[in-house]
Amino acid sequence: MTTDTGEPTLTVDELAARSGLTVRTIRFYSSKGLLPPPVIGPRRVGHYGREHLARLALIEELQRQGMTLAGIERYVRQLPPGLSARELAVHRAVVSSWAPEAVETLSDEELRRRAGRSLDEDDLERLAAMGVLARDGDGHRVDLGLLRLGVELLDVPLSQEAIVTARTVLLEHSRAAAQELSGLLRGEVAERDAADVRSLSAHMRPLVVQALLTAFQRSLREELGTWLGPAGADASAAES
Q1: Which domains are seen in the chain, by residue range?
Q2: Is 22:14 a contact under the CB 8 Å cutoff?
Q3: Nearest-CA neighbor of 151 among 119, 187, 186, 122?
Q4: What pairing do the DSSP bridges indicate for beta strands 39-40 and 133-136?
Q5: What is the reported pLDDT for 153?
């Protein structure tokens, strides 16, 4: 479990059960520097929090994309220090966008297990508004790449209408950016064969999505600074 304040309260056994990994694997990741050390509590027992769980999910997604352990280590070293569970979930959602869409039909019980929490009807409506899931008979069609991020956003105090509007804005602007970049790439590869084009696309996608994420974060911080002042923007960034 974790407290409402996000304090680390998971033992290594509980972290293993929540993440679907073995204790041995978690300790191996820790030895490689992929996972921050736990907070040592009474009786020298290590405690883990939501950030550890989110980081394990990111590592799992990187592995699913076929990245080697050395590649994962390089990726993790380049992450900004002190990322929150929500920010790590954003990175995982970006990484999952490199691969074909991963959608599964889950029962209510399996959905709760994957989400790591109970979900009431209001939660399900909010997740549907985000495009994370859709009702499918007795179960749900779930975009697994977005599930953890969507669950994190359930705790953000936004109305469903605001979520729908924000999703529409992001989709429209990301589609426009994709079209501009696609046109640029077409001009660069016009004289190349199909194999060269596929190779260039495979190398460009992770770089492009990482650049878009970084640019968006910086632009949002600047906008918040204009609206709230520097102190307010820094506080908002720390809470995210």
Answers
A1: 1-83 (1.10.1660.10), 100-156 (no CATH), 160-239 (no CATH)
A2: no
A3: 119
A4: unpaired
A5: 82
